[in-house]
Structure to design on (152 residues):
């Protein structure tokens, strides 16, 4: 069975994901790309990683913060706290096309700097595929900020 991301096999895709995680665990220069990689990977496999509205919001908003809010770490932490709370979110329909770059492409990186560039390009590509949900993502960022502000 082919994978939702476009790779010919789901098993192969899963193995590439594990391989990337092992690389990140063993090399801190790769490790800094983990968060963005996980969001990009989840967004390409929503039927596995974005089943609930909360997990959908977690990865969509995480990617939005990385792409449009300079990867603001305060906002990322606020997102986690927001997700831990109670909320009424509606999960929109999942997409069927997620861009032309997959984890197989990023695993071709031969150095940490190449890995960083590949993951960044991949993330931009996936974010582009989610264009119809950019407005929704920004709306959820607004809710995260409101939530964060109310806690002060
Ligand atoms: Zn895949």
């Amino acid at each position: 069975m082919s994978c939702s991301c476009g790779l010919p096999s789901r098993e192969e895709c899963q193995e590439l994901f594990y391989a990337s995680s092992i690389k990140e665990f063993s090399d801190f220069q790769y490790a800094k790309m983990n968060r963005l990689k996980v969001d990009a990977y989840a967004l390409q496999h929503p039927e596995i990683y974005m089943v609930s509205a909360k997990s959908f919001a977690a990865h969509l908003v995480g990617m939005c913060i990385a792409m449009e809010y300079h990867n603001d770490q305060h906002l990322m932490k606020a997102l986690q706290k927001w997700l831990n709370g109670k909320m009424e979110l509606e999960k929109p329909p999942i997409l069927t096309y997620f861009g032309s770059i997959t984890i197989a492409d990023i695993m071709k990186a031969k150095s940490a700097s190449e890995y960083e560039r590949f993951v960044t390009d991949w993330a931009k590509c996936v974010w582009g595929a989610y264009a119809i949900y950019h407005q929704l993502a920004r709306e959820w960022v607004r809710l995260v900020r409101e939530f964060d502000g109310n806690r002060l």
User: Anything to note?
Assistant: The mean pLDDT is 96.
